[in-house]
Structure formats: C-alpha cells, structure tokens
Design goal:
The complex is a heterodimer of chains A (186) and B (279).
Chain A: E1 4-8, H1 12-17, E2 23-32, H2 35-47, E3 59-61, H3 89-94, E4 99-102, H4 108-117, E5 120-123, H5 129-132, E6 136-143, E7 152-166, H6 173-184
Chain B: E1 2-4, H1 6-22, H2 26-38, H3 42-61, E2 71-79, E3 82-84, H4 88-102, E4 126-132, E5 137-144, H5 146-149, E6 153-157, H6 162-177, E7 185-193, H7 195-205, H8 217-230, E8 246-256, E9 261-268, E10 275-278
Helix pairs in contact in B: 1-4, 2-3, 6-8
Bound molecules: iron/sulfur cluster.
Iron/sulfur cluster sits between chains B (66, 68, 145, 147-148, 181-182, 269, 271) and A (78, 126-127).
Chain lengths: 186, 279
C-alpha cells in the first residue's frame, strides 16, 4: 500500500480523508502530552482559561521521552498507552484537535468525539523509542517544565511513521486487521 | 564472612540499569528474529523488522530501547556468608539514582500513588531480597515498563478449575490486553503459593531466558501449549493482526493451600529487559 505523506497541524479536511489502515509519514509540528499534562489542560478548559498551546488542528503525541544526551534533539521517544488519555481527549477534540498519536485501544467516548468533530487516532509502534527519535528533528518544552518527561514539548518531525488505527468514521484497524489475518487462515 | 562494600553494590546496580535499558539480552533478540522468520503475515513481519532495527540502533548508540525505562525491579540473591558495611537498600537505591541520571534514562516513579509527584531520580527501586548459601551476591536489574505491567492480572481460582482454569485465565488476560502492552509480549505466569506469592512468581518468571522451558515436563508442555494458544488469537504485533502475539510463556509454580489455586499473569513487552551480575 502506498504511504501517504501528511503534515501537522492537520486540517479537519485532511483528517477526514484518512482511513483506518493507511500508513502515513508525518512532517511538521506536533505536541507531546501524557497523563499529567492532559489533566492540567483540561483543568484550564474547565476554568475557561487560555491554554499554553493552540489546540485547534493540533496533533498530540502521547509520549514521555528519555532525556536527550548532548548533541541529541530528544532521547528515545516511542508512544505510550493511549487509554489513559480517554478521560481528556474528548474535551481537546471538541476544541479542534485533529490528531492523536499513541498505541492501544480507545474508549467509545473518544471514538464518538472523533466522529463528531473529525479527528484521527494514529498508532506508532510501541517500543520503538530509539528508532522513532530519529524522525524528531527539534524539541522544546513549551509548558509544564516541572513535569519532567511529562512536560508539553513542541516537536518538529520529519517523516515520522504512523498508521491510522481509528479514522473519523470510527473504522478500527485493531478489529479489521485481526479479522483479515484470521480470515486468511480459513 | 566475605565483605562486600555498599559502593560495589551501588556501582553494579548503576551499570546494570544502563545496560539493561540499552541492550536487550541475546535470548530476546534471537527469539524476535526467529519469530520474524516464522511470521507469514506481511504487515506483522514488517513490524517485527522495525523492532529489530530499533534494538540494533539502541545497541549501536547506547540508547534506551524504549522511552519507558521502567521502574527498576532489583532482585538480590544474598549469600549467607556475605557481610555488607552499611544499608543494602540504600546502596541499591543510590545505584538506581546514578544509573538513571548518568544513563539519561527516564524518571518514571512518583513518591505517592495518589499525590503523584515525581521523585526525580527513579527511586525507590522495587527490591526483592533472597537469602542463599555461599559468600557471593547476585544482582539482577529488570526495568519494567508499565504499558505491559498495567495489563497484568491475578485470580484466586478454585482447585476444581484445574489446568483448564489456568489456561483460560491466561488466554483471557492476553486477549483483554490486546494491543495495549506493545505485542509481541512475554507472558510470565505464577501458579500456586498465596495471593502475593503468585504475583511474585509471575514476575520472577519474566527473568528466565526465553529459550529455557520450565524444568518440570508438565509445565514445560503447558508453556508451549499456552504460547500456541496465544499465537492463534490473531492479535499480532502491535495488535494489527498476525501470528506473533507472544514471544514466550514462562511459568513458575509453588506449593499452595488445599483450598486454593492462585494464578497471576505478569505481562512484559518485547522490550523484555534484565541484566545480572555476581559480585
Ligand atoms: S509496554 Fe514495553 S515497549 Fe511498550 S512502551 Fe512500555 S516499556 Fe516500551
């Protein structure tokens, strides 16, 4: 299958064109956030305060990298398990977030928000920290430095490999990929 | 009595933390390569190839294989004829502190499970002490990622549930974990003992080399049958479909009470890390 080149920020229009199973290479600017940063972002939203990043059309990578060694842009940086962000993602999606990069299952509340607003859930290969860090050209902390690995970072990525796991229509590669494989054995 | 200094313990733990996180052991690497060769589903094969590429980069560049450099699980086998000139626990934690600092490893430990403030140096380690005969000390450091740890399960089965009960419980745990623990996974199973002992056995099972089966032929066969069962589920690498859902199933057992059949499943990912040294 052809590999699609996509850019971040990701417009709603482009997000809606992607289908579960599509292999993509991401270039552009994405943000990192894990559990603690998501919690803080959603607390700000609840209070009606301004967020430290522009969420509209943003792509958020669920990752807490290892510290960069001298000369490195970032340390190892593979995805973390996404379901822990399920409590927060619908809020950010309703504010215009179009992409999430992580690994593992998502809850129905997230998929509903994705369908309603047109967002995509991408998977990066879990446990590929050393390799994926090569696609991250620049990293700077933009908020919550006190959280260490969990701080929000602005990343410039080039040809960062992902696959569409759940698309904006709710199609799910975890279900279809497994079924396709099992059917092939019949 | 043989004297071992706290400094030697600290130095060894520090070195093992860094090595374990940057270099997978040969049994794990060989197993992944072997499963890649056996995998018939192209998408799954591609993922296994990337996993191999990743650990090769980590090896070459002394880079952590995965960004979740884990909580440091440290297993000590302390010879009864060893004397240490200070606190063993403090010496181990100091080794973890230095290893995670100087090794550019991620600090992933919070000081309290509810207030969740990071300790900043990945301490405290989870330390297990075992007294053995002799005048040496064996130290094993096994950094454990939580993507897989979170998918672990324990059950107090009834004796009448028997081996079928164990089988179903293990398969259900893997099925429910699905793509979350970064398959291909390593499945540690603890059978018997008490509630806590079963969990410990499951963790200990993860320390065994992937090419070594349980020395009891009954359990060795069960390990192979469970692996076959898991690799027939179709979950595949990363959960995108394929045969290679697990690399190995390691079972550890222990005598138990007439009324019980505790079973614990501790899931590890393909970044299955542990390094040992005898001092
Ligand atoms: S489950 Fe393992 S491979 Fe996946 S992110 Fe955690 S430590 Fe890394």
């Amino acid at each position: 299958m052809a590999i699609k080149k996509i850019v971040a920020p990701l417009s709603h229009e482009e997000a809606k064109k992607l289908r579960a199973g599509d292999s993509c290479l991401f270039s552009g600017v994405i943000y990192t956030a894990r559990d603690a940063a998501h919690k803080r972002l959603c607390e700000l939203v609840a209070k009606g305060e301004k967020l430290p990043i522009d969420v509209n059309e943003s792509v958020i990578y669920f990752v807490g990298p290892t510290p960069a060694k001298p000369g490195q842009a970032i340390g190892s940086a593979g995805p973390t398990t996404s379901y822990r962000m399920d409590a927060y993602s619908p809020t950010l999606i309703s504010l215009g977030q179009t992409g999430m990069i992580g690994k593992g299952k998502r809850g129905p509340e997230v998929v509903e928000a994705m369908k309603k607003h047109g967002a995509v859930y991408f998977g990066a290969i879990g446990g590929l920290g050393a390799l994926l860090s090569k696609c991250i050209k620049k990293a700077e902390i933009v908020a919550y430095e006190d959280l260490g690995a969990e701080a929000i970072r602005r990343l410039e990525v080039e040809d960062f490999p992902v696959v569409v796991v759940i698309d904006s229509e709710g199609n799910n590669l975890y279900e279809s990929g497994r079924k396709e494989y099992l059917d092939s054995l019949k | 009595m043989r004297e071992i200094s706290t400094q030697t313990i600290t130095e060894t733990v520090k070195k093992l933390c860094i090595e374990a996180n940057c270099h997978l052991t040969e049994d794990v690497k060989n197993c992944i390569r072997c499963k890649r060769d056996e995998e018939g589903w192209q998408g799954a094969k591609d993922i296994l190839n990337r996993i191999i590429e990743n650990f090769e980069i980590a090896d070459k560049e002394n880079q952590p294989v995965c960004q979740d450099t884990g909580v440091a699980c440290v297993f000590l086998k302390i010879g009864q004829d060893v004397h240490v000139n200070g606190s063993i626990t403090d010496a181990v934690n100091e080794g973890v502190r230095q290893g995670y600092g100087e090794g550019y490893l991620r600090k992933s430990v919070v000081r309290d499970p509810l207030d969740r403030v990071n300790t900043g140096d990945n301490t405290p380690a989870m330390i297990y002490y075992d007294l053995v005969e002799g005048d040496k000390m064996e130290i094993t450091v096994a950094p454990k990622g939580f993507g897989s740890e979170n998918m672990s399960k324990i059950a107090m089965l009834r004796p009448s549930d028997g081996v079928e009960g164990v089988r179903n419980f293990v398969l259900r745990a893997v099925e429910e974990a699905g793509p979350n623990p970064c398959p291909p996974i390593v499945v540690g199973v603890g059978v018997g003992g008490t509630f806590d002992k079963a969990a410990f056995l499951a963790k200990k099972a993860l320390l065994r080399s992937l090419d070594e089966r349980n020395e009891d032929p009954f359990y060795a066969k069960l390990e192979e049958e469970l692996l076959e069962g898991i690799n027939s589920l179709g979950i595949g690498p990363q959960g995108f479909g394929g045969r290679t859902t697990a690399l190995a199933v390691n079972i550890e057992k222990f005598p138990t009470h007439i009324a019980g059949l505790p079973v614990a499943v501790n899931i590890n990912c393909h970044v299955a890390r542990h390094k040992s040294e005898v001092i």
